[in-house]
């Protein structure tokens, strides 16, 4: 009888232990799943009173932007912030965009602040960005603005300066509105699960994109080109994916609206070309996170 009681008791303990272990494992799986659904937020917040005015370089590249180019430029010139300069590249427009931009720059009295160039032949957005950043100092912060879009208000650069007051912040991207609907854009925080497969996840790092020129220089030219030529499309993916990977704990999604994306402007890039470039870019080996941002010359792959 004692043996029977012993074995029954042992069996009950075994079943109870197995049940408890199973429940613990189930809870662990649920916790892991919940963590993967959490937003990847590095916790950078704006400083109320920044002690330094960071140097910004607003990069504008346009092609046949017509009258929109004046609104683009005026949104920059109206900033309540002084520590910035502008690189405006007209990518061989044929509609008088460069002349309109030149008039706007002159009439606004901003000639000393702006470097304006008109290409004889189209180079594409990535080639033009590389050329522009090559003229920047490593510690200048590049602000990417499309030639048909504009900054949302006059406090954009001041807001960015509040975030970049933290020296551990290297890159930001943010939310935007679409014109003329003023519908919120698709930019958002990446989730933990998406970060683990960033090259396959839907791209979320939308406007406004900003980063240190020194970080951009660490992107290999081989990952911006194919057969010796720069990708003609997919600038956002080509430059942001590697920089996000390198700046894993040093970037921040900014939820406030800082950018207006003009959906009234005609599409400049063939969707098939865009899709083909994206497929190639996503196939590249991911970059390793950097523990610190040491400014140096552009690295090779």
Report on the structure:
The chain has 301 residues and is an alpha/beta fold. The chain has one domain (56-282): Spore Coat Polysaccharide Biosynthesis Protein SpsA, Chain A, CATH 3.90.550.10. Helices cover 35% and strands 19% of the residues. It is built from 9 helices and 10 strands. The chain has helices at residues 2-36, 68-77, 97-107, 125-133, 156-163, 192-195, 213-216, 235-246, 271-282, and strands at residues 56-62, 84-90, 114-118, 141-146, 150-151, 171-179, 209-212, 225-226, 229-230, 251-262. The strands form 2 sheets. An 8-stranded mixed beta sheet has the order 3-2-1-4-7-6-10-5, with helices on both faces. A two-stranded antiparallel ribbon has the order 8-9. Strand 2, helix 3 and strand 3 form a beta-alpha-beta unit. It is globular. It starts with a helix and ends in a 19-residue tail after the last helix. Residues 25-36 have low confidence and may be disordered.
């Amino acid at each position: 009888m004692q043996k029977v009681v012993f074995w029954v008791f042992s069996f009950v303990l075994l079943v109870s232990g197995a049940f408890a272990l199973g429940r613990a494992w189930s809870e662990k799986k649920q916790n892991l799943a919940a963590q993967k659904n959490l937003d990847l937020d590095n916790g950078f917040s704006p400083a109320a009173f920044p002690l330094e005015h960071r140097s910004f370089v607003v990069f504008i590249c346009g092609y046949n932007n017509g009258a929109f180019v004046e609104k683009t430029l005026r949104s920059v010139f109206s900033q309540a912030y002084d520590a910035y300069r502008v690189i405006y590249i007209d990518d061989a427009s044929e509609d008088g965009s460069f002349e309109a931009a030149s008039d706007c720059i002159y009439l606004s009295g901003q000639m000393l602040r702006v470097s304006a160039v008109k290409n004889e032949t189209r180079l594409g957005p990535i080639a033009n960005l590389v050329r522009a950043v090559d003229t920047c100092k490593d510690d200048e912060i590049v602000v990417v603005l499309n030639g048909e879009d504009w900054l949302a208000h006059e406090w954009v650069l001041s807001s960015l300066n509040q975030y970049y007051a933290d020296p551990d912040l290297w890159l930001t991207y943010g939310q935007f509105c679409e014109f003329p609907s003023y519908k919120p854009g698709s930019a958002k925080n990446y989730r933990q699960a998406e970060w683990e497969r960033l090259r396959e996840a839907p791209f979320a790092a939308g406007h406004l994109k900003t980063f240190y020129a020194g970080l951009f220089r660490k992107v290999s030219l081989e990952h911006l080109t194919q057969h010796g030529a720069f990708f003609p499309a997919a600038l956002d993916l080509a430059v942001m994916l590697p920089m996000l990977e390198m700046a894993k704990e040093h970037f921040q999604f900014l939820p406030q609206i800082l950018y207006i994306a003009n959906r009234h402007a005609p599409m400049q890039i063939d969707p098939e070309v865009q899709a083909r470039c994206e497929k190639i870019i996503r196939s590249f080996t991911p970059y390793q996170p950097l523990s610190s941002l040491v400014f140096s010359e552009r690295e090779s792959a």
